[in-house]
Design a protein that fits this description.
Blueprint lengths: L2 E2 L3 E3 L2 E3 L6 E5 L6 E6 L3 H20 L2 H17 L1 H12 L3 H25 L3 E4 L5 E8 L2 E5 L5 H15 L2 E5 L6 H13 L6 E3 L4 H9 L5 E5 L2 H14 L3 E4 L5 E4 L9 H8 L12 E5 L3 H14 L18 H16 L3 E4 L16 E4 L6 H4 L6 E7 L2 H8 L9 E3 L3 H9 L7 E2 L17 E2 L4 H6 L2 E8 L3
Parallel strand pairs: 1-5, 8-9, 8-11, 9-10, 11-12, 13-14, 13-18, 14-17, 16-17, 18-19
Antiparallel strand pairs: 2-3, 4-5, 6-7, 7-21, 12-20, 15-16
Helix pairs in contact: 2-4, 2-5, 2-6, 3-4, 3-6, 4-5, 7-8
Bound molecules: nicotinamide-adenine-dinucleotide.
Nicotinamide-adenine-dinucleotide (NAD) binds next to helix 7 and helix 8.
């Protein structure tokens, strides 16, 4: 049975799309069509932005506590659909179901409650001045947000934006990625059931041209984008021209640095989580593994054995650790990088091809390259697949130099028996986030990148602040 929608979620209800074209959703595992949604048009974006603008005044005038009540109901409705959400995401992008339950089913309600509560606790601030009087500092919602998300972790990434934006009193027009739309429509069902006021959230699915139209739309006050660096540059250019606030969460090529005292075998599960999770399709994964020359062959063996031992298969199975890539195009791209890795002189020590026992599905074996040099293409460009490059280093100074020899700066991890040493090393890594003996985005801490990995931060109080406008009212001016 396929899941097919005929209407769009605009103004709090199902609305007839203005066009008649649809977006088919294809399973990366079976290569069969599993559903479809209407493809939004520019007219639909206009309608969605109008709805969001019309809703803004009212939603922004509610107290944060009133909004928190509705957002709590939204969280409850999402929670009751969590298993279905996880299954839809896995079926669309190949994410192993155990991970989808955690990231896609579990995380959105947590984020909604976290930000609803944070906003409800915020108060205007009175700051004693230096010049005699004092200043009243107020926060107000930044306005209508255009949110554009990718397919790799669609629900969690959507709620990195939605939760703080809605809690702050903004209204949103969301454009999901064409590969993952069925989860967005389930979210719309949850929003309707929760009684989210009409126009507070609107969803228009479509491709990059529709995204570009939304970014430049005169009714949008802020753009929040997660996706590739190339698209981020184009969006940044438009927002620069318009002087429109923008948050850009872009690509990565992070370093997993194994220090000479690390016991990797004791931390293998965390290492898999920090380097190969979600079939290698996460922006912050540490896909450049830096290993000390003194232990190089032992570490290459450990990582290669890990890759060879992963259960590759149907993402909907509880035992699967590695599903297919999202599309045949993505698989071709990853295979192109594997070819390039070989021709540049890298040595494949695990994987390197398609799993022998699969007849369909866009699978690539978990792949490890040894003898990779930092200048090699596979050590510099984002592959977005299960391909690790193990690069040797001589001492800590060289390790830092190699870790920072990247156009990106998003994630990373340090592996060591001495967490203090790890934290000290992490200070020198040019990146927005780094984990010690693991990697996980805690909701309380700012997440985002430097260099080509983006602008701005999500999560933590900083995530809420990015949807708020500050105003200083100088009191008792003398
Ligand atoms: P993508 O940039 O091709 O597409 C992302 C979204 O943007 C899609 O919805 C797409 O339709 C839209 N889009 C594309 N070009 C656009 C444009 N010019 N204007 C407006 N919208 C546009 O990326 P993808 O292939 O879907 O996702 C993978 C990329 O996302 C990787 O580079 C990955 O590192 C990055 N990513 C970053 C983060 C992060 O938090 N930094 C998280 C997840 C993914």
């Amino acid at each position: 049975m396929t899941i097919d929608y005929t209407d769009l979620y605009i103004r709090g209800a199902w609305a007839r799309p203005s066009g008649d074209s649809t977006i088919p959703v294809i399973s990366p595992t079976t290569e069969q069509r599993i559903g479809s949604v209407p493809e939004g048009t520019e007219t639909d974006v206009d309608d969605a932005v109008d709805a969001a603008r019309a809703a803004l005044t009212d939603w922004a005038s509610w107290t944060a506590a009133q909004r928190a009540e509705v957002l709590g109901r939204f969280a409850d409705e999402l929670e009751s659909r969590a298993e279905d959400t996880a299954a839809r995401v896995s079926s669309q992008n190949g994410m192993p179901i155990t991970l989808a339950r955690q990231f896609e089913g579990g995380f959105p309600p947590v984020l909604l409650r976290y930000y609803a509560e944070m906003a409800a606790k915020q108060e205007d601030e009175i700051r004693p001045g230096m010049l005699g009087g004092s200043t009243l500092v107020t926060r107000s919602p930044i306005g209508v947000v255009g949110a554009i998300v990718p397919w790799n972790v669609p629900q969690a990434i959507t709620f990195l934006k939605l939760a703080p934006a809605l809690a702050a009193g903004c209204t949103v027009v969301l454009k999901p990625s064409p590969e993952t739309v069925l989860d967005a429509f389930l979210m719309a069902e949850a929003a309707i059931a929760a009684g989210l006021p009409p126009g507070v959230l609107n969803i228009v699915p479509g491709g990059r041209d529709l995204g570009a139209y939304l970014v430049a739309h005169p009714g949008i006050d802020k753009v929040s984008f997660t996706g590739s660096t190339g698209a981020g540059r184009a969006i940044g250019r438009t927002c620069g021209e318009l002087l429109r606030p923008v948050t850009l969460e872009l690509g990565g090529k992070s370093a997993a640095v194994i220090l000479d005292d690390a016991d990797l075998t004791a931390n293998l599960e965390s290492f898999y989580g920090a380097t190969l999770l979600n079939n290698g399709q996460i922006c912050w994964l540490g896909t450049r593994v830096l290993a000390p020359r003194s232990r190089y062959s032992e570490i290459v063996d450990t990582i290669s054995d890990l890759a060879k031992g992963l259960t590759v298969g149907d993402p909907l199975s509880d035992t699967t650790q590695m599903g297919p890539l999202v599309s045949s195009r993505q698989r071709e791209r990853v295979e192109g990088y594997i070819e390039k890795g070989r021709s540049d002189g890298g040595r494949v020590t695990a994987g390197g091809g398609r799993p022998a026992d699969t007849t369909h599905g866009w699978f690539v074996e978990p792949t490890v390259f040894a003898d990779v040099e930092t200048g090699h293409t596979i050590a510099q460009e984002e592959i977005f697949g299960p391909v690790l490059s193990v690069i040797p280093y001589t001492d800590e100074a060289e390790a830092i130099a190699i870790a920072n020899h990247s156009d990106y700066g998003l994630g990373g991890s340090i592996w060591t028996a001495d967490p203090e040493r790890g934290a000290q090393f992490a200070r020198g890594v040019a990146s927005g986030t780094v984990g010690i003996n693991g990697y996980s985005n805690d909701p309380t801490a700012p997440f985002g990148g430097i260099k080509n990995s983006g602008l701005g931060r999500e999560l933590g109080p900083e995530g809420l602040a990015s949807y708020q406008q500050l105003k200083s009212i100088y009191l008792d001016v003398r």
